[in-house]
């Protein structure tokens, strides 16, 4: 298992070129946040915007529109049951983040299936939270896309069938190969399984154990893979590293670190890393 190093992150978060515009830094569609879990959509979307994604559109339950806009005027919104609006957005974006707070009822399942039917093979597809559980419980086929799963240990148990106590590198790798997707297995010392290699995060800690912390990471991963397109694996590792790096910094003066506080620190942390590249 290889360690994710600070050097890798410094070399991934490069200085922005001047001859660019918002379309140069990724366009993503976030699909999540039902009427119970609106906070997940807010955290997903905020993390993506603060992590530098050029254009973010959030497909969510309409009851979340006002609170989302009040917290994050930078995002655009659509009703997540509006198939035509979703289809139009899927023709414009280069990445999708689906599942945080999506819920698991029949409406959530319909939305997930519709996105799977319409996502394009060259798009990044980050699958988190409820979407992972829906795939597991309904045995859904995966679409042709650049798929990145972000399960916590229980979600991974549901998806892979491997009980948490048996989630060894060998067992996890076998399940990852079957899925043929990148797996970010979130836990203390998160592990990332790619087709070639396993990477481990050695930073982060229990100050991060607050609901919404994974929703935040999913938004960051979406923003990084669509923005730092030279190397998708380095982009994912950088998102995972910076997420925990900020939490550790905040953890020096706070007993717990809240997802919305972490999100606010993303831009200044990215600047610091971008100034250190060789
Ligand atoms: N503000 C919002 O809108 C929020 C919305 N959210 C959304 O809610 C949806 C449901 O997601 P979820 O993660 O809350 O529920 P679920 O998948 O049942 O997992 C919990 C079960 O797994 C177990 N467990 C074992 N190991 C674990 C581990 N390493 N990490 C975590 N859990 C672990 C755990 O064990 P226990 O706590 O009982 O010891 C428990 O039995 C999802 O769409 C998500 O995006 C949340 O983000 C919260 C903020
Ligand atoms: N004790 C811990 N040590 C390190 N990281 C942790 C710890 N507890 C939680 N985290 C991190 O917080 C995030 C939690 O993700 P998740 O359970 O999906 O949250 P949520 O669904 O509530 O947003 C993961 O990135 C996980 O690695
Ligand atoms: Mg989660």
From TrEMBL:
For this protein, the record's Pfam families field holds:
Carb_kinase (PF01256)
- Keyword field: ATP-binding, Lyase, NAD, NADP, Nucleotide-binding
The entry's family comment says: Belongs to the NnrD/CARKD family.
Its job: Catalyzes the dehydration of the S-form of NAD(P)HX at the expense of ADP, which is converted to AMP. Together with NAD(P)HX epimerase, which catalyzes the epimerization of the S- and R-forms, the enzyme allows the repair of both epimers of NAD(P)HX, a damaged form of NAD(P)H that is a result of enzymatic or heat-dependent hydration.
Sequence ranges assigned to domain YjeF C-terminal in this UniProt record? 5-273
Q: Which GO terms describe its molecular function?
A: ADP-dependent NAD(P)H-hydrate dehydratase activity; ATP binding; NAD(P)HX epimerase activity
Positions annotated to bind (6S)-NADPHX: 40, 101, 152, 215
| Cofactor (UniProt) | Mg(2+)
User: Could you tell me the EC number(s) of this protein?
Assistant: 4.2.1.136
Task: Quote the catalytic activity from the record.
Answer: (6S)-NADHX + ADP = AMP + phosphate + NADH + H(+); (6S)-NADPHX + ADP = AMP + phosphate + NADPH + H(+)
Name a single GO biological process.
metabolite repair
Q: Which HAMAP family match?
A: NADHX_dehydratase
**Residues where AMP binds:** 186-190, 214
Q: Could you identify this protein by its name?
A: ADP-dependent (S)-NAD(P)H-hydrate dehydratase
Subunit details: Homotetramer.
């Amino acid at each position: 298992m290889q360690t994710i190093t600070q050097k890798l992150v410094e070399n991934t978060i490069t200085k922005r070129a001047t001859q660019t515009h918002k379309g140069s830094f990724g366009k993503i569609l976030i699909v999540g946040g039902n009427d119970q879990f609106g906070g997940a959509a807010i955290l997903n979307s905020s993390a993506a915007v603060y992590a530098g994604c050029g254009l973010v559109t959030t497909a969510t339950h309409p009851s979340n529109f006002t609170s989302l806009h009040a917290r994050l005027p930078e995002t655009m919104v659509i009703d997540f049951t509006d198939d035509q609006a979703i289809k139009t957005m899927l023709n414009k974006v280069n990445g999708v983040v689906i599942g945080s707070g999506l819920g698991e009822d029949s409406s959530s399942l319909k939305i997930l299936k519709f996105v799977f039917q319409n996502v394009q093979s060259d798009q990044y597809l980050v699958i988190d939270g409820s979407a992972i559980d829906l795939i597991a419980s309904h045995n859904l086929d995966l679409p042709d896309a650049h798929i990145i799963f972000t399960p916590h240990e229980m979600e991974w148990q549901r998806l892979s069938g491997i009980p948490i106590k048996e989630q060894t590198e060998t067992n996890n790798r076998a399940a990852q190969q079957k899925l043929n997707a990148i797996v970010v297995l979130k836990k203390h010392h998160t592990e990332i399984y790619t087709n070639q290699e396993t990477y481990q995060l050695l930073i982060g800690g229990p100050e991060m154990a607050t609901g919404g912390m994974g929703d935040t990471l999913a938004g960051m991963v979406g923003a990084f893979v669509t923005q730092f397109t030279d190397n998708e694996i380095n982009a994912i590792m950088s998102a995972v590293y910076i997420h925990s790096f900020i939490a550790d910094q905040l953890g020096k003066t706070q007993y717990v670190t809240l997802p919305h506080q972490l999100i606010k620190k993303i831009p200044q942390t990215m600047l610091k890393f971008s100034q250190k590249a060789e």
